[in-house]
Amino acid sequence: MHETDDLGSLAGDLRALASAPAELLVRGTVVDEQYAIERVIGSGAMGVVYLATDLRLERNVAIKLARERSPIALARASREAVSLARLSHPNVVVVHQVGALDGRVYVAMEYVAGATARAWCETRSAREILTLYAAVGDGLAAAHAAGLVHRDFKPDNVLVGDDGRGRVADFGLATSESVTPDVAGTPAYMAPEQLRGEELDARADQFAFCAALLEALGPRRFSRHVEIALRRGMAPTREARWPALPPLLAELRRDPTRPRKVVALGAAPVLAAVAVFTATRGGPPPTVDRCAGGPPRMAAQWSRAEADKVHAAIAPAGSPAWVTAVADAAVLATDGWTARWSAGYRDVCEAGWTSALHDRGMECLARDEHTLRATLESLAEPGGDPAKLDGLVGRLPRPEACADPLYLAAEVPPPTEPVLARRVAETQDELARAMVLAAACKLERADELLRTIEARPAGEYAPLVAQIQFHRAWISRWRDDNEHALPLLEDTYYKARTVGDRTLAADAAAEATLALIDLSRDADAEPWGRLAEVEIATLTDPQTRSRILRALSVLATTRGDPARGLDLADRALEFNRPLADLHGLEATLQERAQAYDGLGKSELALADLDEAAAVLTRAYGEHPEIALIEDQRSLLLLKLGRIPAAVAAARHGLAVAEVTSGGDAAMVNHAVGGLGVALSHAREYPEALAMIDRSLAMTSKLEGAHSYNVASDLNNRCDLLARMDREAEAADNCTEAIAIWTDVTGKDRAEIASAELNLAQARIDLRQFPAAIIASERALAIAGKQPDGPGAPLALIARATARLGLGKRSEGRGDLEKAIALLDASPASNPAWVAGARLQLANVELHEGHVVAGRTLATAARDAFEAIGDERLDAAQKLIAQLEATR
Amino acid sequence: MSDATTAEDRAELERAVRAACDTEAWQDAVTLAIRGYGPELLGYLNALLRDPAEADDVFATTCENLWAGLPRFAWQSTFRTWAYTVTRNACVSFVRGSRKRRSVPLSSAPIAALAAGLRTQTATFLRSETKDKLAEIRAALDPDDQTLLILRIDRQLAWREIAHVFEPESATPATPTMLDGRAAALRKRFERLKADLRERLGR
User: Fold this and answer.
1) Strand A148-149 and strand A114-116: pairing?
2) What angle is formed at CA B126 by the lines to CA B120 and CA B127, rounded to 5 degrees?
3) Using the beta-carbon criterion (under 8 Å), do B141 and A17 form an inter-chain contact?
4) In chain A, whose CA is at the least distance from the CA of B2?
5) Contact B111/A607, CB-based, under 8 Å?
6) Which domain range does residue B29 map to?
7) Contact: A40, B44; criterion CB under 8 Å
8) Which structural domains are found in chain A, ordered by start?
């Protein structure tokens, strides 16, 4: 008899866990005396792809070997080989040979070192993606001309070599057009007729091609005519699609900014003269470029001398390495931005818009140019805080938006009266300057500037009033004066709606949401969050959308809905990734980490924090924000039980904070507190206590003895002292923390529940069971409102322990059973807690004479303790021995 | 390609390898053996290491060790069992070595597994919850436990053969009594593993 016979209900799962399918080929195998197998480079449902060396021709080839032995597949592959041999195109992977190996089909083909189109497109612009796909489309069209249908075209079947050339690969499903196929392919890219299993022609590939391209373009901005062309290619009936690929590809290649062969008659002789001139001189035709005005305008703002000045102001000689990196990054980012502005200038100039739209595009560019000027002035001023200056260039508006008619249409049109229009434009420039000053933390000067603006006559123009008010609120938010900002933001929202400024309305709603969160008024933030979400639906600017989606994600996660927070952060990231704004990306990653953490997916949270830190490290080496990220990483690592790593992260965080804080005591203090907590888990008690005391003293000094963070420190100290067997002091610290938190944040907060739990534990250790029951019930009352969190079961375990201490066995049993059920269902559970509860319950069973039940529980606890290396292993083993003896 | 997939194939292969060894044609013996058993050994390494490049590296080491150790192999077990012993030892020393060398990539392995789990979760129409749970469990399995599962359930080795595979490296050959004792211990471990998996799967 074999083990598999008596596996019972587990049989299927155990077989799946034990499955280790033999590989088809191993390294060194020589196929058909020609191809020496090197290694596996990919595998799919149909077969495995190997890298191999062609021994005759001394080149690398890819060998695709089918999994199944099938004479039909062999016959089909032979047909395919003949067809593909007829086809030689730079955008189709070359097939060298098709053969049979032990009844399986293999195809030896050109090895393309590079990436799939899916991976390649992730970091590319819309223009690059269009160019790639148009070329790949040529390859596909050539295959169609040879009578082949690919039938499984998708981004993973397009290989992009290191030379940047795209090639269609994997005609694995391809068949001669006349053959009716069975349904095969990848559903996401399949034409409706393919899903229905009908006979296919080249138009099914056209559908897949368009679906893949549309997916690759994703949230990027691209021309409307491209979208229309792709929608036609994806029409549900093939008759409505393009008759063949070539006209679709021509449409994709058409540049709408260049008129289609519309040469005015009067220009013809000039062109002819140019042609003659060219023919005799042999050089390029000297044409007049009306749209070359961008680069000189940028050169006037941003010369090498200006760049050197900015660099020297941010990072004077002798600055720390990270400050120099900030200066390098600012210069580099400005280089990039000015080039984008020049490109935007050309786009607007060549767009062939109506003159009104053209003028608005140019005004938009002029406003951006002004913001650049204000930003450079702020950067070039010596003595700024590098950490604050760092984000300034990233905050510059996207010049691409000025070339986007949809974006321009969402703006409020300027007044028609010319004098007022000029004043409004000037005032908007001044507002941009105030915003830059505020972002550079020069709040006094920003305030002063706003007051001057308000005093001007143009200040009465309604759309401008709303904008000025928003800026005032924004500056208050920078000052952390949310009480003042809130009514201004609410009013701005209604004003912006009245004048039809959708972008401003969305921004105001989002800032109001964030202000309310900062004021701990999460419930009031909800309706504002929903308004912001509605408003952004009509916006096209990715920068605005990502910023607001991030704010909404913060709200959802704070409100206890991390799943929604995750969804919103994911959407924000989609917009963030293609943007040049490094801090936006890093902030969204941190936010998504919070959402993952709330969902109990600590490893994913950790991965996001790692990426956020990596983004900063790549750009700067060291950066103050890294200290904050390390603090969060350390907490997550503690949750995962990876204590040494948590301590290392906290130590690194403190080191970075000390180097980069520039005297910001609060930042260093934050890191000190974090290290204290990590050390207390690592049982480095003396050093932990020293850190927590240092943090407590500094927090009291910075924020006053009756502040939120002092309560945090006291709660951490309580936890530590309990671990050090100094329970009486611990209880005092917890009691104080609870009092402060209740006062500062109000009742019913998760942090109060955690302090009550710590207090209950200390009371239990002091054998003050009735007091422990009271504390655990207070924790339960708060945590019970969050059914998925670990608070409620932990509170139940604490109450059970106290009740058992008083000899109330059946009540204790009830609590433990409920706690285990909750922990089993909770995503935020921890094996040590479950095992602890089982051990306690086993003890109850022993006393009640239920030996079998007790042993099952104790064994499960023992195994869990053994697996995680918990010190309670001995206790579990002793209990098992006792239970054995009883039997 | 002549991988040994049936019991008859295997018996035939064992005879051929032994005949080559008897004439001290070591190279022929190893070539035959690797051609026959290579695919399943590499499959085992792929399942255990979950990284084709690493599996390839360890497989290369395994082949060298088989080659070097063959003259001393005394045929106290089948060649297949001995090949699994050599493979497992190569794998254990690889994991030990790499853990010492680079703790970071190893600790990121569960992250990758989780990320894979998440991707499959999004394609809910393709995967059931249990399958995700299985992937999680597989990622968390101790390598020895997984070896036990693979050899016993998938490869259907006898307990004595498995005891051979788990023989400590460089130990003097075990007596039959010792082997039986070790087989009994492994059997117990297997039962515990099943109970543990049953609990984790909520059965």
Assistant:
1) unpaired
2) 60
3) yes
4) A102
5) yes
6) 7-101+141-200
7) no
8) 30-110 (3.30.200.20), 114-253 (1.10.510.10)
